[in-house]
Amino acid sequence: MIRIVILTGAGLSAESGIRTFRYCHGLWEEHDVMEVCSVDGFAADREKVNAFYDERRHDLEEKDPNEAHRMLARVKQRYGGAIAMLTQNVDNLLEQAGCPDVIHLHGTLTDLRCERCDTVFPIGYRPQSGIACPSCGSARVRHNVVMFGEEAPAYRSMHDAFKTAEMFIAIGTSGRVVNIRWYAQWYDHTVLNNLDPDETLDPYFKTVIHAKASAAAARIEALIDTFLR
Ligand code: OAD
Ligand code: ZN
After folding, report:
1. What is the pLDDT of residue 11?
2. 36 lines ligand 1 (CB under 6 A)
3. What does pLDDT average to over the chain?
4. Alpha-carbon distance values, 151 to 38, 39, 87, 140, 147 (Å)
């Protein structure tokens, strides 16, 4: 039974060199979000959107997990089903660190999805051009990242996880997409780790650690161990 929900965001991978969305010099400064990450933008210009994800997938190849990814992999290996490992990140750095059963709320960069039969299949770090669905052969395939304006099916797993949880840990997320304030209010054990003090967010959490995720990792691991042992 799930006892701890861990939810991570772009800040977890920031020290691995993957840019956050809203933080200073974030990805959105250089791109029009609605052009590259919305259903309407995709309908208007598939090539542009595909090129955006090709570039992010290519960038990912040379990135390595950091200490925070490794800590999360360790606790997930140690405690298995007692921890739900949810991430908003589309990179694969938790998996690269050895973390099993990561739930990607917003999809994955290293997979594609068939628009005809819905099969999700791995593409690695390659560009998607010329790749057809291995299941039905359709050439109508797309990136596997959730865009604004479409459902995020994995949110159902998140809701289920929160039902039995007793502890909630948020790492490296601004909480603007997944409403972490709303979840935090229900639990006695809550931990927030990000960089900046925020008087509208911090009071919802019992333990607030404003530090880089890698620096906070040992303390978060100890909190998890204490709670589950
Ligand atoms: P944001 O960019 O909104 O927030 C990043 C958070 O990470 C901020 O709170 C920073 O303080 C914190 N942060 C930055 N560097 C950090 C570090 N080294 N250690 C710890 N914390 C650090 O990113 P998300 O909350 O993940 O959706 O954004 C959520 C979603 O918005 C994304 O998944 C994306 C975007 O729309 C999709 O792509 C569908
Ligand atoms: Zn198919």
Report:
1. 96
2. no
3. 95
4. 11, 11, 16, 19, 8
